[in-house]
Amino acid sequence: MKQYPLIAVSLFFTIPLLAQSTTDTTKIHNLNTVKVEATRINQDILRLAPIQGTYIYSGKKNEVIDLTQKNIAQTEKYGRQIFAKIPGVFVYDMDGTGNQMNISTRGLDPHRGWEFNIRKDGIITNSDMYGYPASHYNIPMEAVERIELVRGTGSLQYGAQFGGMLNYISKQPDTTKAFTFETINTIGSYGLVSTYNGVSGKIDKFRYSTWLNKKWISGYRDNSDSQYDAEAVSLYYDASKNLHFKLEWTHSNYITHLAGPLTDEMFNNNPKMSTRSRNYYNPNIHIPSMTVDWKINPKTQLQLTSSAVIGARNSVMFDKPVTIEDAISATTLQYTNRQVDIDHFNSYTTELRGLHSYKFLERTNTFTTGIQLMNNDLHRQQQGKGTTGTDFDLSLVTPGWGRDLHYKTNNIAVFAENRWLLSNKFSVSTGARIEIGETNMTGTTTYYSDAELPNTIKHKFPLFGVSMQYDLTENINFYGGASQAYRPVILKDIIPASIYEVSDKNLKDAYGYNTEAGFRGKWKSLKWDITGFYLRYNNRLGTIAQTNSQGDLIIFKTNIGDSRTKGVELFLQKDFYLGNQASLSVFTSTSYMDAKYQDAIIKSGNTNTNVSGNKVESVPNWISRNGFTLKYSVVSFSALYSYTSNSFADALNTVEPSISGASGIVPSYQLLDLNLAIQLTDKIKVQINANNILDEHYFTKRPQFYPGPGIWPSDGRTFSGTVSIKI
Hints:
single chain, 727 residues, mainly beta, 22-stranded antiparallel beta barrel, 6-stranded mixed sheet, 3 helices
């Protein structure tokens, strides 16, 4: 039996009657029907090529998730299922509606993935790299073909982020037809209804793709309903085989009810309960872009992209600790006025990249270089006096804002990297990135001196990196390297929350480096990737207590110290062939992380406490996901067991929960997911998902601030069914 390492299906080739004619006589030879069957083993985790497009990935840890081959609850967008085979991915799982992805690696902050350079088809989607780097844009997994993740040592080519690059590659146009239609429809627990519909095709030199997705859910918790829509239109023009143009617009928008945080007692009594009924969150993001790809000759190619992130992050909330009830006043017979906050994003990016191959000492080396220009204006309007109503309403009953600020950044980055092929098996890549920019904050607050508020932050960083790869065989190699990284001081770091806070005028951007060394490969039916890493994160932001010239205690927002995270990431998969139509794939994806503060002091009560040696919050020592996929003919069944050990919620490593639930231990948890897929025909697929089948009551983080300090429970047991049709 011949083996094809793609998807587990059976291929049937029938050799029909062969007729042969001559001028004199006709001879007919009847041949027996021959059926050739091949079991394709699941290849839902792949690696990037050493050179791909205008990027160099040689020597860098990277993974590619092929979503077309995964059994997952894609509508719900459970991070543990999507990233199951990428060791060390921490999932901040407080949004069971599937509206946002909150993940991190190597002990970084998972809030909306803001330690990553997040892209869609190579286009940046982070809302504002210097003011608010979270990615509020939210692509449905039904529209994604694969996900590329490059860890921090590859960051010089695309950005300076500690986490690396996370690139969602959308489904490409079907070039075999002028018109192809795909529809994916899901129903599930707690009122989940989702419909995704897309069309694509090719007409002469034009290709096109467009899709839309709408989703509704009442939510696992009370007052956690959500309405979601997203769309995209992509137009391609292939001027020649070497010159391609692309215009794209994509948009995501959702309104979700925020059920509010819980205390530990509330969570233990009923994790579905709600403490807020009038809180709403709404990111509405548009991303237009233009891309030009030009292969000048077999050795040289250029790519030009120009894009924008335009939209707003809106919220209207009764923004008080969970210990304060949101109730109708006996005096006014009304609720308290809610707080309205709006961030307006106006972020513009232009990137020009080039890659050239050349001969040196009779070997082919590769050089990539580029320039990135960013012009951003984050307009933050907060603490507006909203209505006393209960619906989603951003109107103000009193004109004006408590904070009305502009955070404007101009930045230029130039990078270059060269892959030196020192032998047929050994290569070294050296690179550098120079970031030069300036951020100016202006505006007003109602509680802070206008003269003291303006701030200017300069970004000047030369960053360097090196990576190496030694190929034992075509499929087995050693790799490793080191690369510097930095994270700009963002808007929330420098805005005083009250009159009792003062921001350091000399705040420094966080900076540090990633190092890693690994061994990966594929031998027969065994695949593996084991990596050791060390991440240094200097100049972390926080608060310390100080006394001003009048002798009053103030909270000083400044750089509090450093941290380091070290650990091991292991991926191991073994495939078994069980017959002409059957296969079994078993894997483990496990990481160990040790993250601790170094030379760090933070405010505790009215005094300062040295937290050097304490564990970094929200970094569990162990994250392990293990599972199998059993395939027979057109049926595929998967099981996934996920374990995450406990972690601390604050830098003080508080063990006993606080009254509000904002500090204390985050307990360990273990989850079991089951997925069944049946390919009824080559055009119709049915899938059934049982998520958290053991109904584990758990939470992944105790946020200190947004969306409210306390416990945010994750989803319990849910079910869903999906029907996919492509014609």
